[in-house]
Amino acid sequence: MTSKELYKLWLEHAFAAFKLYEQGIMKYAFKIAGERNVLGVMSVESPAVLDTCFAELPLYQKLGDQLHSKFTALRQYEGFASDVSERAGKEARYAEEKSILKKGLFYFLTFTVEYDSAMTQQDLLTVWAEEAKEALDAKKSGVILDLWKVIAERKVLAVVCVQDPAEVDRMSLDLPIMKKWEIKCMWNASQYGR
Q1: Which residue ranges does the record assign to the Muconolactone isomerase domain (predicted)?
Q2: Which ranges constitute the DSSP H helices of the chain?
Q3: Which positions ≥6 away from 71 have C-beta within 8 Å?
Q4: For residues 50 and 44, is the Cβ–Cβ distance under 8 A?
Q5: Within a 13 Å sphere around the CA of 187, how many CA atoms are in the beta-carbon half?
């Protein structure tokens, strides 16, 4: 396949993905800068819908098993934050917020939360409830485009939009969960373009 044919195929793929966006299935799609990878967030009623959607995408039809997909079950962070707050005795409830789209540098952050075995689960939930409130306030301000909790893991995924890459470091160091010495929060950032 020539470069021109590949670009044409990518364009067809993008139009097909946009149709999924119009149907409310595709929530976000980012081309990863410098890589042949795409990150997408989809909302489906059943995992079987994913098979149907991907079978109809031009890249999959043309390239078949040369394309590899990885799926991670997520839940909206607002629901998780409400559950954590309730378990921490704070009783805060969070409604899903619409994202504020703006221009800037987009980063996909993966936070993995680990904690010292001497720490109680209640201690972890209390700190995480503080974290959730701050994260959702940042979403309201537009710094965080969206965030999700990975099902059955102590992992949070976020898409942030900043003007300067240094803002990502500053933001992560100011998180309540990073300020508590008992909790280790490892994170990975990938830039996804403008």
Answers
A1: 2-76, 106-183
A2: 3-22, 47-55, 58-63, 77-87, 121-141, 166-173, 176-179
A3: 47, 50
A4: yes
A5: 21
Segment 102-138, tens digit of pLDDT: 888 888 888 888 777 778 888 888 888 888 898 898 8
| Total-model pTM | 0.81
Asked whether 144 and 133 are in contact (CB, 8 A), the reply is no
Calculate the dihedral angle through the C-alpha atoms of 70, 73, 75, 77, rounding to the nearest 10 degrees: -50
Measured between alpha carbons, how far is 107 from 128 in angstroms, rounded to an integer? 22
* Residue 96 tokens, joined: 């899903």
Alpha-carbon torsion 78, 157, 34, 63, what sign?
negative
**Of 174, 105, 99, which Cα lies nearest the Cα of 134?**
174
What dihedral do alpha carbons 36, 41, 42, 43 form, nearest 10°? 170
CB 134 within 8 A of CB 176: yes
Q: Give the per-residue pLDDT at 187.
A: 54
Task: Give me the phi and psi of 39, to 5 degrees please.
Answer: -110, 130
Contacts of 150 (CB under 8 A, 6+ apart): 72, 73, 74, 156, 157
Instruction: Please name which of 92, 167, 100 lies closest in space to residue 130, comparing C-alpha atoms.
Output: 92
